[in-house]
Write a structure and sequence with these properties.
With 332 residues, this protein is an alpha/beta fold. It is built from 10 helices and 13 strands.
Length: 332
């Protein structure tokens, strides 16, 4: 399948992440997945004239378009004219190009949270009138509207993240190329379930501290960052701590709170990213699958049972108490 990748209102971070895919031969991996780049702004050699001619042919149906990928939010301003972002060499708004190309594509993919929901490009008062392809923050609609479906019946496939993990992108494109991605493989927000049915909390190296509600108090501490430091790993849909970046890292493993970047509206949380908003000392953002009363009760029990090692290590940047040494054999 051929892939056309366009960049709109964003930083290009998803392309940068894609180029860091964990493979010694990126072009070979793409080819082995059954994919061919028609054009990508960072990977293709075609000049302006060639690209414009290609877009005209695709939009007119003179050339086939299998997968249209958009990175970055659609900029509809000013006054829904789209003229805040004109595609260089054409004098035509990128918004108009997308509206022309999307109906020609076999599949449409939003790469990153900006293309999916609006993301950081839609922050605050959103003067650029930025939106996603099929969502405006958490509200269905966006540029293409709620009713948009590709010829196979799929909505826009939202590979959300800021940035996206390269494997999320490549696995999604590969599944589309092989014809195995169905509507049942997408969650309620159109995200591929192979990563969106997970939580960032899964596999987090701080889980023992979470279990005993032993919390970090400053950025260098080892403890759980949920209670005081804004971590939303128990609410964020992604497999970041089991599918590591470059085989090594994730936000929480680097000492940073999860800001839930795969979710609509994450860019405007209403509080500093490094702080946890609370009511009567209880964090507002609690695990997605647990009633608040249960969490409060279990948290109280957990704190009362916290081992000294876990409690003391939580507020230090290196362990200060080693695990106790006990015989682990099981005998009657």
């Amino acid at each position: 399948m051929n892939v056309l990748w366009l960049q709109s209102g964003g930083c290009g971070g998803c392309s940068m992440s894609l180029l860091c895919a964990d493979t010694p031969d990126f072009p070979a991996r793409v080819a082995a997945s059954g994919l061919t780049w028609l054009w990508h702004p960072s990977l293709s050699e075609a000049g302006q004239g060639e690209v414009v001619a290609l877009l005209e042919d695709l939009a007119a149906g003179r050339a086939p378009l299998d997968i249209l990928c958009l990175e970055g939010a659609v900029l509809r301003g000013p006054q829904r004219s789209g003229r805040f972002h004109l595609l260089a060499g054409t004098g035509t708004p990128m918004m108009t190009w997308i509206e022309r190309l999307a109906p020609r594509a076999r599949h449409v993919v939003a790469v990153g949270s900006c293309a999916a929901w609006g993301g950081f490009s839609a922050t605050g008062a959103n003067p650029a009138d930025a939106c996603g392809l099929q969502y405006e923050n958490a509200e269905p609609g966006g540029l293409l509207g709620t009713g948009f479906r590709d010829p196979s019946g799929l909505p826009v496939v939202n590979v959300a993240g800021c940035p996206t993990h390269p494997d999320w992108v490549l696995e999604t494109l590969t599944a589309l190329a092989q014809g195995v991605l169905t509507a049942d493989d997408l969650d309620a927000l159109g995200r591929p379930r192979f990563y969106a049915d997970q939580l960032v909390h899964h596999g987090c190296t701080r889980n023992e501290f979470y279990e005993f509600k032993a919390s970090a108090e400053k950025p260098s501490d080892l403890g759980c960052m949920m209670e005081h430091m804004g971590c939303k790993g128990t609410q964020a849909h992604a497999d970041c701590n089991t599918r590591l970046w470059n085989g090594e890292g994730s936000c929480t493993r680097g000492g940073y709170a999860c800001i839930s970047c795969t979710e609509p509206g994450f860019q405007d949380p209403g509080h500093p990213y490094h702080a946890t908003p609370k009511i009567a000392g209880i964090p507002i953002g609690l695990p997605t699958d647990m009633p608040k009363a249960w969490f409060v009760a279990l948290a109280s029990l957990s704190k009362s049972a916290t081992p000294r090692r876990v409690k003391e290590n939580a507020s230090h940047h290196t362990p200060v108490v080693a695990p106790a040494i006990r015989r682990t054999g099981l005998k009657k």
